[in-house]
Specification:
By secondary structure, the chain is mainly alpha-helical. It contains four helices and no strands. The longest helix has about 35 residues.
């Protein structure tokens, strides 16, 4: 067994060697890089989860009690709630490698941009506000910022994973 504290076992015995930069799960000896990545992913999931609960509660109440007053805005509130629930579940189950989460976040961003633009520039189209009205101003603009942050996070991790795979291929062939 090696006396090197950064190694979890001898490389010749098949144990992972954290110093090998070609390994996808390589970390520095303190593990801070992995903890930071996991922490941000957890924060993203928590914020999506809170927004999912808030939007689902709002949409459920509106649909149950006031649907006939303004069916389109209330249906849009339900759509926003569903996107938040789906993204939350995808991030929990598949993490940063979820292609579906990337697509749903893209659809979410288009939805908030369209609804936000319509409610800002043609306010007469909507009788009442939705989660996405005025770009999510009723929710502190979190509905606008969240899909942008999520898309950037997912794309950065996809590129890092692809780069790690190509680096590992170069190391093996060298």
């Amino acid at each position: 067994m090696s006396s090197d504290p950064t190694s979890t076992g001898p490389a010749s015995a098949g144990g992972p060697d954290r110093r090998d930069p070609s390994r996808r799960d390589a970390v520095d000896p303190t593990g801070s890089v992995r903890r930071r990545e996991r922490g941000f992913a957890t924060l993203l999931i928590v914020v999506y989860g809170i927004l999912a609960l808030a939007a689902t509660g709002r949409a459920t109440y509106e649909l149950a009690t006031k649907f006939t007053e303004a069916p389109l805005p209330y249906a849009l509130s339900l759509l926003s709630a569903l996107t938040y629930v789906v993204v939350t579940v995808l991030l929990v189950r598949r993490g940063a490698r979820s292609r579906a989460a990337l697509w749903v976040c893209g659809i979410e961003l288009v939805g908030i941009l369209v609804v936000g633009s319509l409610t800002t520039f043609a306010p007469g189209l909507f009788e009442v506000s939705t989660v996405w009205s005025h770009f999510g101003s009723g929710y502190g603009f979190v509905p606008l910022l969240l899909p942008i942050v999520a898309i950037v996070y997912l794309l950065v991790h996809r590129r890092a994973a692809a780069r790690g795979a190509s680096d590992a291929g170069r190391t093996v062939s060298a």
